[in-house]
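Observation: inputs received (chain + iron/sulfur cluster).
Thought: call the complex predictor directly.
Action: predict_structure
Action Input:
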Amino acid sequence: MRHVYLHVPFCRRRCSYCDFSIAVRKRIPAREYVEAVLQELALVRDSSDGALETLYLGGGTPSLLPPNALKTLLTSLRDAFHVTPSRDDVEVTLEANPEDVTPESATAWRRAGVNRVSLGAQSFDDRVLKWMHRPHDAARIGHAVRALRAAGIDNISLDLIFALPAELERDWARDLDLACSLLPAHLSLYGLTVEERTPLARWVSRGATSVPNDDRYAEEYLLAHARLAACGYAFYEVSNAARDGHRSRHNSAYWSGRAYVGLGPAAHSFDGRARRWNTAAWEAYRRALAAGRSPVDSEEVLTDEQRELERAYLSLRTDTGVSLSAYPANRLTAWVSAGWATIAGGYVRLTPEGWLRLDALVGDLTALHGTV
Ligand code: SF4
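Observation:
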């Protein structure tokens, strides 16, 4: 496998909007976690073809792992996938929360092999961060970026959330400008969604906050495109923008339909034909491995139709686009006339206005494809 994802499920508390598979813990059970992942690694290592290209530690909050636990994991993963110490071309990303980044932790991460950090900034407004139940304040984001750079980690991505409820009066343009002023290599922007069983869903159901509306979403999404383009960033995927070609190699592998292996609770794997996912709950995952059982919960083999739908969806969500010759030309040219797509070099690529309608356009395309 050339691409490996490791899910670190622990968080200190749950953010107001988050429905991820996490385990909220005051004390991170690092020793038990490392033991369980190494047991899972022993089960999958034989399927490795030895050409690891990217390793991504996501969560949860991977930056909560103590440095020695992180080092053990990264060393074991590199060994399992035959990465020699001299190879420095493997993209190793760690998701981190700003409050966990200190000069010491950043140096330890760099020494352990991390060369890219995705920082959960979310906003530069302290009031908004509090509403989100984030433990950091805005000043901490700049401190984190500087500490990472001083430790030799320049490949930094910032996550921001947009389309917040109107009553928060969040100044999205200001947040974009402050993000740009830190010159991160990469930015990921996510529209707020109200997921079931989150504090946000409860606030909405009792009328304490409003559901963000589509107009606000569209307005802020388009503003981000304009603002970030002016700062030298290019969107290469519906939610991701990079400057100077610093695309996420790991996420790009997902979007181009390549195989990957996922380790840890709730992690997904894909071998080009079938998708598998691990049991989501941390304790159940740990118990399965301790008993010598596989933590895989389920798997689905994609039908030809599903594969076609997925191929179209992945290509259209990125700047790869779809081949003009693969679909009825009149429909694609209608998208161009509506301002939702452009055509160049035989490929149709969505514009920001098109990305706002991604799901509908993919549905349109695949329904048509079935009739050609
Ligand atoms: S830190 Fe991330 S994973 Fe953890 S609760 Fe917040 S949004 Fe969810």
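Thought: report the result.
Final Answer: The pocket of iron/sulfur cluster is lined by residues 11, 14-15, 18, 20, 22, 59-61, 97, 120 (CB under 6 Å). The first helix runs from residue 30 to 44.
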